[in-house]
Design goal:
Blueprint: E1 2-5, E2 11-15, E3 21-25, E4 31-35, H1 39-45, E5 62-64, E6 70-76, E7 91-97, E8 102-106, H2 110-113, E9 123-129, E10 142-147, E11 152-156, E12 164-166, E13 178-183, E14 189-194, E15 198-203, E16 209-214, H3 225-228, E17 232-233, E18 239-243, H4 246-249, E19 255-259, E20 267-268, E21 282-285, E22 291-295, E23 301-305
């Protein structure tokens, strides 16, 4: 199950194992309505039980547009049109218009006519992009996708067939497949992790590189796909928290803070302590990256003012 709060905190969106999204009043927990995927999703799923795209190595998305008008979710589809298919590697994207409850599917055509040109069919991470840098102007929401081969796809909400592809110029020629990607809240930035490990933060409008970090220069930072998955990005896309190798293998886990705008190398956040390798298992950042929250294996949750680190 995935959970999401509305921007004003008044509603909770809960997506169940059948990919339906239930909307609740956050104060009374009264069920208000259910948002369902389009019929074509159910037809292609056959007699299999659908589920949200939430694989062990690739986290799915349930997110709102910046203006709160649209809700996006990854939806897993079988790897074959056969009703006996058991694979759910491929995914599509559903976008609901909350005012009407209508839903449109993005990139479903890949399963009929072949892949989008120049793009890997495996859609790795998704978001709703809405440029809010010019107050007073209405900016159309776009679905933005990072593919496993490093290609960015975009399509405007309401025009799912108008797909634009961007190959970020900052990617090295030997990029191969990415191991992790996550978007800022407004979809304007995406942090991409490569297996080796290289960290890149990209502008999703242009594909330009905003910041980059080669962990080979910082051997204490995480290496390998399993640890790279635990990198987190602040909502405004300006601060990242990166676990060190101690996150899994040593007694005192370390988390490093990377401020993308100041051009400085990551610095270690102090005062985390720990008595075992799983003492701090997860980290989250506030929208502006000023506060870091940590979850310990025993269920404890604690916070640190980043400026005090």
């Amino acid at each position: 199950m995935k959970l999401l709060w509305s921007w004003d905190g008044g509603h909770i969106f809960a997506q169940d194992a059948a990919a339906d999204v239930h909307v609740y009043d956050a104060l009374t927990f009264k069920h208000l309505r259910t948002l369902s995927p389009p019929d074509i999703y159910k037809e292609m799923s056959g007699d299999q039980v659908p589920r949200p795209w939430d694989h062990n190595l690739h986290r799915g998305s349930l997110t709102l547009s910046a203006d709160g008008r649209y809700l996006l979710s990854n939806v897993a589809l079988p790897t074959s049109l056969s009703k006996h298919s058991v694979g759910f590697r491929h995914n599509s994207i559903c976008v609901w218009t909350l005012a009407t409850g209508s839903c449109e599917a993005h990139f479903l055509r890949q399963y009929h006519d072949g892949p989008v040109p120049e793009a890997d069919t495996y859609l790795y991470a998704t978001a709703l992009r809405q440029d809010t840098r010019s107050p007073g102007l209405e900016h159309r929401a776009h679905v933005v996708v990072m593919c496993e081969n490093g290609t960015l796809l975009t399509a405007a909400v309401g025009s799912p067939d108008g797909v634009t592809t961007i190959r970020p110029a900052g990617f090295p020629a030997d990029l191969g497949l990415i191991s992790h990607a996550l978007f800022s809240s407004d979809g304007m930035r995406v942090l991409v992790v490569k297996f080796t490990v290289t960290f890149l933060v990209l502008d999703t409008l242009t594909g330009a590189t905003i910041a980059s970090l080669d962990s080979g220069r910082y051997p204490t930072l995480c290496s390998g796909p399993w640890l790279g998955m635990n990198v987190v990005l602040s909502g405004d896309g300006r601060v990242a928290a990166i676990p060190s190798q101690r996150w899994m293998f040593e007694e005192r886990p370390e988390w490093w803070l990377w401020r993308l705008e100041d051009g400085m190398p990551p610095r270690k956040m102090l005062g985390l302590g720990g008595t075992g390798p799983a003492s701090v298992g997860r980290c989250a950042l506030s929208w502006d990256g000023s506060v870091a929250g940590f979850a310990a294996a025993g269920g404890d949750v604690f916070f640190r003012n980043v400026e005090d680190s």
